[in-house]
Amino acid sequence: MIKPTILEIDNVRVIKWDENNYVVQREETYFSPINQMDVTSYVFKGCYATLQACFKAIHVKGLLIDENSRCGSIER
Known about the structure:
Elements: E1 5-9, E2 12-16, E3 22-32, E4 37-48, H1 51-61
Antiparallel strand pairs: 1-2, 2-3, 3-4
């Protein structure tokens, strides 16, 4: 069964898991030892009771920050 996506910002999405819960997922690329290749898929980051809790977790965990961005490596 496909779960409805409530919100999608860049590579982070919030889906409604059931009547009382929301799930935060982040699209990440990781190495799969089974397939011996890089795989891009959504990875579970947490389950929350309210949308407000989801937004707080996205902020606190820094899920919208791109670690591969070059902005942090600029020398002055």
